[in-house]
């Protein structure tokens, strides 16, 4: 069973995505901020990380950069979840920043559950 670390500061989103992923037989570990996400990534060594971009303590771009710079964790696929495209004019984040992080994929919020599962399966190499 693949282990997925889900990092997002929105408890409702974490709960909803956890239910979806557990229904597909994934083992889900939740973290509610970037710092907690980094700690859990290093402790749990997940097969994949779903990472929100906009979080108050440490944003997803920073978490992604740190993990990709560390040879021990750089091979873990990271899927960035971002509301940046819809908020480009009201935020300091840009899509270019996302491309510079070496994330393996990114998907805009709100995300369709089916699309999220498909992207995760692709990153895990489980294409049917």
Written account of the structure:
- The protein has 128 residues and is of the alpha/beta class.
- The chain has one domain: 3-Layer(aba) Sandwich (Rossmann fold), CATH 3.40.50.2300.
- It is 39% helix and 19% strand.
- It is built from 5 helices and 5 strands, in the order βαβαβαβαβα.
- The chain has a 5-stranded parallel beta sheet, sandwiched between helices.
- α2 runs parallel beside α3.
- The longest helix has 13 residues.
- The radius of gyration is 13 Å and the shape is globular.
- About 8% of the residues have low confidence.
Secondary-structure blueprint:
Elements: E1 3-7, H1 11-23, E2 27-31, H2 34-44, E3 48-52, H3 60-69, E4 78-82, H4 95-99, E5 105-108, H5 113-123
Parallel strand pairs: 1-2, 1-3, 3-4, 4-5
Helix pairs in contact: 2-3
What's the short story on this structure?
The protein has 128 residues and is of the alpha/beta class. It has five helices and five strands; from the N terminus they run βαβαβαβαβα.
Strand order of the largest sheet: 2-1-3-4-5
Strand content: 15-25%
Q: What is the CATH fold-level name?
A: Rossmann fold
The name of the CATH superfamily reads Response regulator
| Largest sheet report | 5 strands, parallel
| CATH C-level class | Alpha Beta
Name given to the CATH architecture:
3-Layer(aba) Sandwich
Mean pLDDT, to the nearest integer, reads 86
Helix content: 25-40%
Number of helices: 5
How many domains? 1
End-to-end separation: 16 Å
The H-and-E topology, N to C, reads as: EHEHEHEHEH
């Amino acid at each position: 069973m693949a282990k997925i670390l889900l990092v997002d500061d929105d408890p409702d989103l974490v709960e909803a995505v956890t239910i979806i992923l557990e229904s597909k037989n994934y083992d889900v570990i939740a973290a509610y901020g970037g710092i907690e996400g980094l700690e859990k990534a290093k402790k749990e060594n997940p097969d994949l990380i779903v990472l929100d971009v906009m979080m108050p303590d440490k944003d997803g771009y920073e978490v992604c950069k740190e993990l990709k710079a560390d040879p021990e964790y750089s091979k873990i696929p990271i899927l960035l979840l971002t509301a940046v495209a819809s908020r480009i004019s009201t935020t300091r984040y840009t899509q270019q920043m996302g491309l510079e992080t070496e994330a393996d994929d990114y998907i805009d919020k709100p995300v369709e559950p089916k699309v999220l599962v498909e992207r995760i399966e692709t990153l895990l190499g489980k294409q049917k």
